[in-house]
Amino acid sequence: MTKFHEFKNLCVLYAEDDETLRETTKTTLQLMVSKVHSASSGAEALDIYKNNPIDIVLLDIYMGKISGIDVAKQIREYNNKVPIIIVSGSIATEDLLAACKLNLVEYIQKPFDFGTLIKVLYLAIDRMKAHGLMLTKINDTVSYDYFGKSFIFQDGKKTALTKNEILAIELLLSNRGQIINYETFSQTLNQTMSDGALKNLIFRIRKKMVNDSNLFNLSKIGYSLT
């Protein structure tokens, strides 16, 4: 599973009205991705999608008043790129025809196993790559490429990062707006970081970012990326 590490920064929305299956699948997804939002209805799924950054959407097709197809249609009205996967025990011909028009990543049948879940996540990752969705904007001049492990600037230029720089910037990005203390940096980098060593690491990241206006140091506490 050469791509497995690529799942760790993803945020997934999973909608399923069967509580047992929903909780089991949610637990499985949590082993692989950064965040899982689970919904028991189409209405709840839409509310979550509209109020949270979502990378991949998994929708049960039959969920009462608002079906997975209906949710996908509404998402597609303002986002034609987010990967959507439809899940169902069975599917009527008319629903299958409707699903085909929604630019879906895949349609999978219940019950599905771990291997199938991994497969559709891989497909979603490939779709995101194709649409350039794995770039995270740091500020107006620089973005971070999770796949290339580099900074990308407005003019297209790239700057590669070292292993520790990658670990540090991904820690800051995954906890954006929060203060990351020195101990957390040490645990993430799997080494004891003196104040001087951490300052030097952050200095190198700042230099490569060029525009570091939203990377803040809180004296004797830690760092925060806003």
Portion in helices? 40-55%
Count of DSSP-assigned helices: 8
**End-to-end Cα distance:** 33 Å
| Mean of residue pLDDT values | 87
Silhouette: elongated
The total count of strands amounts to 12
Biggest sheet: strands side by side, in what order?
2-1-3-4-5
Describe this structure as you would to a colleague.
- The protein has 226 residues and is of the alpha/beta class.
- The protein is built from 8 helices and 12 strands.
- Strands 2-1-3-4-5 form a 5-stranded parallel beta sheet, sandwiched between helices. A 4-stranded antiparallel beta sheet has the order 6-7-8-9, with no helix packed on it.
- Strand 7 and strand 8 form a beta hairpin.
- It is elongated and about 65 Å long.
Draw up the topology in text.
Blueprint: E1 11-15, H1 19-30, E2 35-39, H2 42-51, E3 56-60, H3 68-76, E4 84-88, H4 93-100, E5 106-109, H5 114-130, E6 135-137, E7 142-145, E8 150-153, E9 158-160, H6 163-174, E10 180-181, H7 182-189, H8 195-209, E11 215-218, E12 222-225
Parallel strand pairs: 1-2, 1-3, 3-4, 4-5
Antiparallel strand pairs: 6-7, 7-8, 8-9, 10-12, 11-12
Helix pairs in contact: 2-3, 6-8
Short description:
The protein is 40% helix and 21% strand.
